[in-house]
Amino acid sequence: xxxxxxxxxxxxxxxxxxxxxxxxxxxxxxxxxxxxxxxxxxxxxxxxxxxxxxxxxxxxxxxxxxxxxxxxxxxxxxxxxxxxxxxxxxxxxxxxxxxxxxxxxxxxxxxxxxxxxxxxxxxxxxxxxxxxxxxxxxxxxxxxxxxxxxxxxxxxxxxxxxxxxxxxxxxxxxxxxxxxxxxxxxxxxxxxxxxxxxxxxxxxxxxxxxxxxxxxxxxxxxxxxxxxxxxxxxxxxxxxxxxxxxxxxxxxxxxxxxxxxxxxxxxxxxxxxxxxxxxxxxxxxxxxxxxxxxxxxxxxxxxxxxxxxxxxxxxxxxxxxxxxxxxxxxxxxxxxxxxxxxxxxxxxxxxxxxxxxxxxxxxxxxxxxxxxxxxxxxxxxxxxxxxxxxxxxxxxxxxxxxxxxxxxxxxxxxxxxxxxxxxxxxxxxxxxxxxx
Length: 436
Known about the structure:
Elements: H1 6-17, H2 21-33, H3 37-61, H4 68-76, H5 80-108, H6 117-138, H7 141-165, H8 182-191, H9 201-204, H10 212-241, H11 244-249, H12 254-299, H13 316-332, H14 335-359, H15 361-364, H16 368-392, H17 394-418, H18 425-434
């Protein structure tokens, strides 16, 4: 197999992060942080950058398609903690899929008359998941080949949005008097943390990278750094051009609404089309990845063995289960609930990855204090997020408790009744690669 270089690897990270997240959560971020939304994006980006250091060290030491699953197993062994976290990882991917589908429906509905938008939103949410599941069943090579073009188009559109929008920014809208209080601002940054989810996909390609000890760290830092700058500038243009009330009113499609003041209806349409392309491509890629995550975890003995059975040489049972849960989540939960579950799930997973690098530092090398800082930052962010949501929407905390209970409860019950032998992720990954 031909080895890939820095630009290709960095593109994986950028494409993973600049998926549907920024299109979906920007309005929610402004609602919470108000004029301080650029700082909120920066703070969540710093946590992502700290965690990228742990991924860089671990991916060089343990190059594997298993990525996060492999690192947790290497650090903590195939026990209940690792199994529960791996199931939580799969659930978090399902939440990400739900967010992308929700965003697809929210932007797509704007092309229909106001009276039927609510209906069309759910029709589009369901249709995009079902169609792209079908593409993954029959083989999505054409969509996969188009992925690089889609990444290029959506990044270009966002850069044009920034270039035109910066000229009309009203700086007073971004001044500290218009910020939320510090705790709410920080919590706002954490509830949209899932907009940075995706850089860890670089780790899954570690085995196919040229000179990985040099290329992987550079790709991790460059991709996360670029996306931090991109998100901060996008939020500056959005909050600097529209009053908060107008952004909140268009919460589900805030980025398209923010293009109107300086690009008119053409800009609105352009952003909406970019959002549809971006979220559809993100759903396709994440469905592919989530199905294989469930396959690898099942091979480790941490999920029921039917998820490791292949149909037509593909892990289709895991794919279909992922799609069904995504349809339910995207259609029956609102944006803030989905964002809370996704951000909280990934903050816990990334805290565990930082802890894994600390535990394995004698093998991975590097500066241990960075991963200690990343671990503490992830836990602090999780705590601030939960505290703030508990103050304002305590019913949403029940969703988070439910997700954690499902992850660790399912693992506990399954281990007690199945008696399946637990395998290392390395051997599972090897089997995966050797399958025809």
